[in-house]
Amino acid sequence: MTRSRPGATLHSTEIPHHVVDRVAARRGSGPLFADLDPRRTALVVVDLQNAFLLEEFPATFVAEAPSVVPNVNRLAAGVRAVEGSVW
């Protein structure tokens, strides 16, 4: 990971559907982890540091970083809803 300069933003990343389809066809099955036991599954959240998320830290603040938080919260809620763990 590179440090962000003030005003710099992260880029959005998407995997094109044709790539996903090609990998699934090569693998010969559906989702790789379709048979996970949710009660034995954990979501591990690493490095949501205030220095990247809060404008009070201008040397390290990344403007796009706060947009990650709702997605992490949504994932955490989904894992908890099926009795998984969030760390």
Structure description:
It is a single chain. The protein is built from 3 helices and 2 strands, in the order αβααβ. It is mainly α and 87 residues long. The chain has a domain at 1-7 and 35-87. A two-stranded parallel sheet has the order 1-2. The longest helix is centred in the C-terminal third of the chain and has 14 residues, at 68-81.
Topology:
Layout lengths: L16 H11 L14 E2 L6 H4 L14 H14 L3 E2 L1
Parallel strand pairs: 1-2
| SS element count, helices | 3
Gap from first CA to last CA: 22 Å
Strand adjacency order, main sheet: 1-2
How much of the residues is beta strand, in percent? Answer: under 5%
Q: Give the integer mean of the pLDDT values.
A: 81
Structural class: mainly alpha
Note the quaternary state here: single chain
Identify the overall geometry: flat
Over all CA atoms, what is the radius of gyration?
A: 17 Å
Helix content: 25-40%
Number of strands: 2
> Which consecutive residue ranges, at least 5 long each, have pLDDT under 50?
1-5
> SSE order in H/E notation?
HEHHE
Task: Provide a compact summary of the structure.
With 87 residues, the protein is mainly alpha-helical. It contains three helices and two strands; from the N terminus they run H-E-H-H-E.
